[in-house]
Amino acid sequence: MATLVVALGGNAILQRGERGTAEEQRKNVDITAQQIALLVKQGHRVVVTHGNGPQVGNIMIQNEAARDQVPPMPMDIAGAESQGMIGYMMQMYIRNRLREMGLDIPVATIITQTIVDSEDPAFSNPSKPVGPFYDRAWAEKRMKEAGETWIEDSGRGWRRVVPSPDPKFIVEGPSIKALVEAGHLVVASGGGGIPVIMSPDGKLSGIEAVIDKDLAAERLATYIGADTLLILTDVPGAAVNFGTPSQRWLGKVSLEELERYQAEGHFRKGSMGPKVEAIIRFLRNGGQTGVIASLDRAVDAASGRAGTVVTKT
Ligand code: ADP
Ligand code: MG
User: Fold this and answer.
1) Of all atoms in ligand 1, which is nearest to the CA of residue 11?
2) Helix 213-224 crosses helix 272-284 at what angle (to 10 degrees)?
3) N vs C: which end of the chain shows fewer Cβ within 10 Å?
4) CATH class for domain 3-114+168-311?
5) Interacting residues of 220 by C-beta distance below 8 A, sequence separation 6+
6) Residue 67 and residue 60: Cα distance in Å, rounded?
7) Is residue 236 lining ligand 1, measured as CB closer than 6 Å?
8) CA of 73 to the centre of ligand 1 (A)
9) What is the pTM of this model?
10) How remote is the CA of residue 97 from the centroid of ligand 1, in Å?
11) What is the side-by-side strand order in the sheet with 167-170?
């Protein structure tokens, strides 16, 4: 039975233009759950991971708005909150959809920590905007009093930026692997995992940073020895000359061809870039197939009949 790590994009939980009400998120997660259940029905062993940007952003806004009544939580704890809330929705809707198809498979979420290197160059260059927009006075106060980094974001106000270091190791990897091998459907590494650093004596501590969910999905897929890394998003795949008249969606491509396009700069930093990088790393680290496809084509994509399908040769 082939093992599939499915990395869900933001559109699996929230569509463009939605505010993020519980009902909107439930509806989207249920549609996603149907796709996941279909993958299981097709005979795949599935591990699910997902983004958390809008959800953790909203938690941070709640924290700031209630600052005087309830102590705000740091980013690592907010990340854990988002994993729990999204994990719960995934667990329930995936279980319901599986049952509808006559599949009695246990579904569980693992709150996941991801180790990053404390020497990662990202720490000297915080670049990923998080949380709400504020005015200059607030930004200056936070920079002075809390030592945070803030940037002015194209006239829309000031926003905090945090480092986005490279994920190295999934702390809960052994637990995830054991559950997968026992036939459970696992939801893990949400939002790329909670970023932690490890001291020389092995002690973990949470940090104020974010991890790219696609790069963390590669770490997870490689660790559990998955056959396929399937990255589902809101476009049909990876394109060369994206957004220009000569745009061309990539279908079946070899690893070398994809690396050539990457070197030519076809995939944007922060969106398609990390997906392509994740697929390249997965194949370099022993994976068989990497696919980037749109969420509604999940089943075809898993068997290489939709999306950008990357293999070693
Ligand atoms: P997700 O939440 O799924 O990670 P992202 O917004 O991070 O979604 O990445 C998907 C987006 O990447 C697409 O909506 C598209 O606008 C953008 N993109 C940038 N470069 C490319 C490219 N070369 N081919 C396809 N999509 C691209
Ligand atoms: Mg993304």
Assistant:
1) 2
2) 20
3) C
4) alpha beta
5) 5, 47, 49, 170, 173, 176, 188, 189, 226
6) 10
7) no
8) 30
9) 0.96
10) 28
11) 167-170, 113-116, 194-198, 204-206
DSSP 65: H
Is residue 153 very low, low, confident or very high in pLDDT (cuts 50, 70, 90)? confident
Token match 């060369």: residue?
Answer: 240
144 is catalytic: no
Query: Domain limits of the chain?
Result: 3-114+168-311
Bridge partners (DSSP) listed for residue 204: 198
pLDDT digits (tens, 9 = 90+) for 208-228: 999 999 999 999 999 999 999
Report the alpha-carbon distance of residue 144 to residue 74 in Å, rounded.
17
Which ligand 1 atom sits closest to the C-alpha of 9?
3
Task: Tell me if residue 115 falls in helix, strand or coil.
Answer: strand
Establish whether residue 224 lines the binding site of ligand 1, counting it when its CB lies within 6 angstroms of any ligand atom: no
Atom nearest to 8 CA in ligand 1: 3
The pLDDT assigned to 155 comes to 82
Residue nearest to atom 3 of ligand 1 (CA): 9
Alpha carbon of 204 to ligand 1 centroid (Å): 33
